[in-house]
Design goal:
245 residues, alpha/beta, Uracil-DNA Glycosylase, subunit E, six-stranded mixed β-sheet, two-stranded antiparallel ribbon, 8 helices, 39% helix, globular
Length: 245
């Protein structure tokens, strides 16, 4: 598949994501959150739709999160943008050379990713940050299509246990041989699955970062490994472009 075709596929997937209304509970919740913002965001126009992936679809690294935050991605329209989790993640991405700046504030802020893109297991903000299994099932098609459009081998970085299980499920459906015993989530874990690599890290949620369960050095170590894995793949991959916002 040529780069131009990959970009067209990626754009089509993101268009389908934004138009999706498969999950009534999530539709209601994201719109209610937009109608009742906290005082600090009063008067802002919320995105209040499913949030597309962001970054460089011609790279080999895909970072998989959980879901947009009600007053983060659901507000700004860009994944991991406008909340504490995003600030933590993009500081690490910038430190390892995958982002051109350490902050993700809003669409149009000049942020670019090179060699990687970021997606999520659910594209709508869920109540309590917990999508239902049926909602994850509804959304999995979009990540599967994104992964299918990427050049191989790929390096998947799962942010948290739910993203890790979703990655395993997609790889299994693709026909990749899942190792036995079955891979288990643990921070810093690495699994070779078929021609791809799956890395795991704790999610950069405030619950993890404010308590020190996940630190910047810990996250950067996993991301640096992803960069090394992508750079040393048999195809000697290069980034084909920059995702901009």
């Amino acid at each position: 598949m040529r780069d131009r075709e990959r970009l067209r596929l990626f754009e089509k997937i993101q268009s389908d994501v934004v138009a999706c209304r498969r999950c009534p509970r999530l539709n209601r919740w994201r719109e209610e959150a937009a109608q009742h913002p906290p005082r600090r965001y009063a008067g802002e126009t919320y995105w209040a739709r499913p949030v597309p992936a962001f970054g460089d679809p011609l790279g080999r690294i895909v970072i998989v999160g959980l879901a947009p935050a009600a007053h983060g991605g659901n507000r700004t329209g860009r994944i991991f943008t406008g909340d504490e989790s995003g600030r933590f993640l993009f500081a690490a991405l910038h430190a390892v050379g995958l982002a051109n700046q350490p902050e993700s504030i809003a669409r149009g802020d000049g942020l670019e990713l090179s060699g990687a893109f970021i997606t999520a297991t659910a594209r709508c903000a869920p109540p309590g940050n917990r999508p239902l299994p049926s909602e994850l099932d509804n959304c999995r098609e979009y990540i599967a299509r994104e992964l299918a459009a990427m050049a191989r081998p790929r390096v998947l970085v799962a942010l948290g246990g739910i993203a890790f299980l979703s990655c395993l499920a997609i790889l299994a459906v693709e026909g990749a041989p899942i190792p036995r015993p079955r891979p288990r989530f643990a921070h810093g874990a690495r699994y070779a699955i078929g021609e791809d690599v799956l890395l795991a890290t704790y999610h950069p949620s405030q619950q993890n970062t404010f308590t020190g369960k996940l630190t910047q050095p810990m996250l950067r170590a996993v991301l640096r490994r992803a960069v090394r894995e992508a750079a040393t793949s048999p195809l000697h991959p290069r980034s084909g472009g920059r995702g901009q916002g």
